[in-house]
Amino acid sequence: MNIAIGNDHAGTEYKFQIEKHLQNKGITVLNFGTNSSDSVDYPDFIHPVADAVEKGEATFGIIICGSGNGAQMTANKHQDIRAALCWNNELVALAKQHNNANILSIPARFVSIHQAISFVDIFLKTEFEGGRHQNRVEKITVKYC
After folding, report:
1. For residues 51 and 78, is the Cβ–Cβ distance under 8 A?
2. Which residues carry out catalysis?
3. Mean pLDDT over all residues of the chain?
4. 2-138: which CATH number, 2.40.50.100, 3.40.1400.10, 3.40.50.720, 3.90.190.10?
5. Which among 77, 60, 8 has a CA at the least distance from the CA of 37?
6. Tell me: the pLDDT tens digits for 31-56?
7. What is the spatial distance between Cα 30 and Cα 19, in angstroms, rounded to a whole number?
8. Which strands make up the sheet holding 2-7, listed edge to edge?
């Protein structure tokens, strides 16, 4: 399994800890984020994560910025990306179960690193329920003619 991860300056320490956690589980991490706390523009680091997930180079993506909003908005501009901004365990589980989210957006300024790692574990183990949710998920992506 490959996980793409991207972050801006607000999420650098979170990225390092999540990357280490995933590698300890034997998961390959594709790091598209900044490794610095110097101010950067988050889209520069989020678009590559969404591209990797879209192209199948990564199974899932994890994106991290201060509020999680900008990262999520950026990722969701891509076709077939369903990035979910989550700040508690229940939202993470529901994002996968009901929305088949393929990118987890973490708001670094609003959750602890410990919580963020918990979110990652929940995201990875939770399955999409399909069924009544499948039709709804299929209606999310705008298909261009």
Report:
1. yes
2. 65, 98
3. 95
4. 3.40.1400.10
5. 8
6. 999 999 999 999 999 999 999 999 99
7. 9
8. 28-31, 2-7, 60-65, 103-107, 83-85
What 3-state class would DSSP assign to 139?
Answer: coil
pTM exceeding the 0.85 threshold for the entire prediction: yes
Q: What is the pLDDT of residue 142?
A: 76
User: Can you tell me whether residue 15 is helix, strand or coil?
Assistant: helix
* pLDDT(145) > 60: no
DSSP for 31-85, written as a single string? E-S-SSSS---THHHHHHHHHHHHTTS-SEEEEEESSSHHHHHHHTTSTT--EEE
Whole-number Å distance between alpha carbons of 106 and 62: 8
What's the CA gap between 36 and 107, in Å, rounded?
A: 17
Q: Are strands 2-7 and 103-107 parallel, antiparallel or unpaired?
A: unpaired
